[in-house]
Write a structure and sequence with these properties.
3-stranded parallel sheet, alpha/beta, Ribosomal Protein L15, Chain: K, domain 2, about 15% helix
């Protein structure tokens, strides 16, 4: 095989539309832009969110408080979900993903206190609620902040 033998797979390429090349082409004269107006002009476009002078939705909707766009939210899990592990197990984000309890944990894990814990396990997480920490310790386990 040589370079001159190569050709694209059948149907993988197509010829682009040639705008403004006569009315027989179906895209002649105005070139698919209609008649006049801002969008018919060269460089004529409206910015994202512009609503023709009407007050844009982003400004009409009320805003409350502070919304940190750089926040890295922790993945929350309840104490009840930890019962599936054996006594003496070390449970961290990797173990939870492997067990199928959570799908992913990009920024860290937080353990919340919903439910009861019956197993004596060591839990490693970025954060614990106070009541979750108490439940883990009452069951004889450890709550370690990583």
């Amino acid at each position: 095989m040589e370079l001159f033998n190569l050709s694209p797979v059948e149907g993988s390429t197509h010829v682009g539309k040639r705008k403004g090349r006569g009315h027989g082409s179906g895209n002649g004269k105005t070139g698919g832009r209609g008649h006049k107006g801002q969008k018919a002009r060269s460089g004529g476009k409206v910015r994202a969110g512009f609503e023709g002078g009407q007050m844009p939705l982003a400004r009409r909707v009320p805003k409350r408080g502070f919304n940190n766009i750089y926040a890295k939210p922790l993945t929350a899990i309840n104490v009840a979900a930890l019962n599936r592990f054996e006594d003496g197990a070390v449970v961290d984000a990797a173990a939870l993903i492997e067990a199928g309890v959570i799908a992913s944990c990009p920024y860290g894990l937080k353990v919340l206190s919903n439910g009861n814990l019956t197993k004596k396990i060591t839990v490693k997480a970025a954060a614990f609620s106070e009541s979750a920490k108490e439940k883990i310790q009452q069951a004889g386990g450890k709550a370690e902040v990583v």
